[in-house]
Design brief:
Elements lengths: L1 H19 L4 E15 L7 E10 L6 E9 L2 E8 L2 E3 L4 E5 L4 E9 L3 E13 L3 E8 L6 E2 L6 E5 L6 E2 L6 E6 L7 H21 L1
Antiparallel strand pairs: 1-8, 1-13, 2-7, 2-9, 3-6, 3-8, 4-7, 5-6, 9-10, 9-11, 11-12
Keywords: Signal
Pfam families: PEP-CTERM
Organism: Massilia forsythiae
């Protein structure tokens, strides 16, 4: 994994530095859910590895990525690094508490792999990038592309930048609503209290 990290560090840094040039005073926001598909039917057969990672610069707004609805022929090998937990058998949670957080999962080439990923973020600060890449049986050689098959750049106060841009991956988004600001929560709580009073009076 140290070799993989050394490969990704300059690539990730460039992406995150670009995000850091923009600033956003973000409210709490639940972003869209993305359905990600990765087709390995033209990449041969045998064991390979998929890396699902969340990386951030120092000072990034807190981000939690939740991955679920996994589909595909996954292998038994699995490794988590940084602020990551879970498994493809249920759900995976990646947090940007450190610069490098990932699930490194074994797969069997030859079919379609898919999953859903959603992001919760709040506050303002530097950007965060979610990305996925495929590696060969040596855990070092890229498959498909010399880099990320999927990349989603997140910046508070700005639209997500989604970049599959290749023949092996596709990303479809389903929009989600904003999470209410604290003031909105207070209004909702007040409304709920009034409803409660009305119900008690009717009782």
């Amino acid at each position: 994994m140290s070799t993989i990290k050394s490969i990704f560090t300059p690539m990730l840094s460039k992406s995150l530095l670009a995000l850091a040039l923009a600033s956003g005073a973000g409210a709490a926001f639940a972003g869209p859910t993305y359905h990600v598909s990765i087709d390995t039917s033209t990449l041969g057969s045998g064991t390979a590895y998929i890396d699902l990672a969340l990386g951030a610069l120092t000072g990034a707004a807190p981000v939690t990525a939740t991955l679920n609805n996994f589909s595909g022929n996954f292998g038994s090998y699995t490794e988590t690094n940084g602020a990551s937990s879970g498994s493809v058998g249920a759900s995976v949670v990646l947090m940007n508490g450190t610069s490098y957080n990932d699930l490194f999962q074994g797969i069997v080439l030859g079919g379609l792999f898919s999953f859903d990923v959603s992001f919760d973020t709040s506050g303002s600060g530097s950007g965060t990038t979610f990305y996925s890449a495929l590696y060969g049986s040596d855990m070092q050689t890229f498959l498909g592309l010399q880099g990320n098959l999927v990349q989603i750049d997140l910046q508070p106060g700005m639209a997500d930048v989604v970049a599959p841009n290749n023949a092996f991956a596709s990303v479809q988004a389903q929009p989600a609503a904003d999470v209410p600001e604290p003031a909105s929560w207070a209004l909702l709580a007040g409304g709920a209290g009034l409803l409660g009073c009305m119900r008690r009076r009717r009782a």
